[in-house]
Amino acid sequence: MAVTRYSKFESELDELESSELMQMIQEALLGQDVNDPYDPDPNARPNMDDLFDAILNALAERNMIPEDMLMEAMHADNIDETKLGQAVKRMIERLQQDGFIRKEFEDGEGGSGSAGEASFSLTDKSIDFLGYKSLRDLMGGLGRSSAGAHDTREYASGTEMTGELKNYEFGDTLNLDTTATLSNMMSKGFDQAEQSDLVIRQSEYNSSAATVVLLDCSHSMILYGEDRFTPAKQVALALNHLIRTQYPGDTIKFVLFHDSAEEVPVAKLAQAQIGPYHTNTAGGLRLAQQLLKRENKDMKQIVMITDGKPSALTLPDGRIYKNPYGLDPYVLGATLREVAQCRRSGIQINTFMLARDPELVGFVRRVAEMTHGKAYFTTPHNIGQYVLQDFMTNKTKVVN
Fold it and tell me: Largest CB tally within 10 Å, which of 89, 224, 229, 325?
């Protein structure tokens, strides 16, 4: 792939704006470069050294390092003390000053310690930025740039006109079609006009939706030489930005499932790590239902992104039952009972499967049939387009 050298960076890397830098390192921030999937501490935060390396790699990949700085760094024992190292440190400081990252220490923010001991977290500003960038990239793949509200097959006499006319009925909003109404009255005479002569223009009923994104973060999502978890997080952030900016009446929450399941706030989603080995789909569905029960919305749906079969189950006493070999009837039965409960609660499950094993295909199709949802068999490269397109069109859901 051809690499472009940007002339304005030849003499001064300090001209690089924080937003440009964030765009350059967004894949590293969302991926495993600054998130160690094998760290035994589930609360471990990304290290400042990892951020330093991510910026350095991004500059090198784009051939943006001036030759004199590069030669000095290559022959130095400690890159931190070189002109290049100091320039990267200034970039990190600008990210902090511009509100994209928050530097933290083990003994609390502002404590003492070296750069290597310090960690960092992403701010709301950076989460919003990453969501916007992911959304823009995915929208480009869809060939569309904007979206309205969720269209349903229901009609109401509201404010968004569809062009379809109907005679006025008691209780309708008087969105009168003047031409049709006057024509009726003139043909009969104004003194003979009746209520039925009034003609209104119908408008589409736009529903509100509550969505829970169910993200599989079991180890299979980064195994077999393919990172499936980073694209899943990008989709989740893009969906969050889309709902926040285009569908202000909607809500969205995020649940990670592995051996167990837990809700994760969007502020921590970008740096969420791969969890334990197994896939507790039933636990994820149960938690998603609990979150959706609190929402008073016309539409309730679960967007499940996974690449594996259910292989774990939370027992009544809290212990985790695990069986990674095949579709365990005990695990499968409990999972399908949660699916059936979703159906009874009017919750649609749309599943985006990142694998095509015959057992998985059958399981996913059964889930879709039970909840009148949809099943998509995708790859990490096109999952974002499928998720966003499905969310925006939502053609199969009818609000009664």
Answer: 229
**Ordered alpha helix ranges (H), 40-146:** 48-61, 67-74, 83-97, 124-142
CA dist., res. 143 & res. 148, Å (int): 15
Model confidence pLDDT, tens digit, residues 74-115: 989 889 889 999 999 999 999 999 999 888 765 544 444 444
Q: Which residues contact residue 71 at a Cβ distance below 8 angstroms, ignoring those fewer than 6 apart?
A: none
**In this structure, are 375 and 247 located in the same domain?**
yes
pLDDT, tens digit, 9 for 90 and up, residues 308-333: 889 999 999 999 999 988 889 999 99
Three-state DSSP state, 242: helix
Neighbouring C-beta atoms of residue 110, cutoff 10 Å:
8
Is 279 found in the same domain as 162? no
Residue in the block written with tokens 């502002």: 110
Tokens of 397: 């859901």
Which of 122, 140, 170 represents a domain boundary (last residue)? 122
Q: Token digits for 388? A: 């966003």
Check whether 60 has a pLDDT greater than 70: yes
* Secondary structure of residue 148 in the 3-state scheme: coil
User: CATH number for the domain including 241?
Assistant: 3.40.50.410
Provide the 3-class DSSP secondary structure of residue 81: helix
Structure pTM? 0.71
The count of domains in the chain is 3
Q: How far lies 68's CA from each of 64, 91, 233, 316, in Å? A: 12, 19, 38, 64
Residue span of the structural domain in which 116 resides:
7-122
**What is d(CA 65, CA 56) in angstroms, rounded to the nearest whole number?**
9
Answer whether residue 226 is part of any domain.
yes
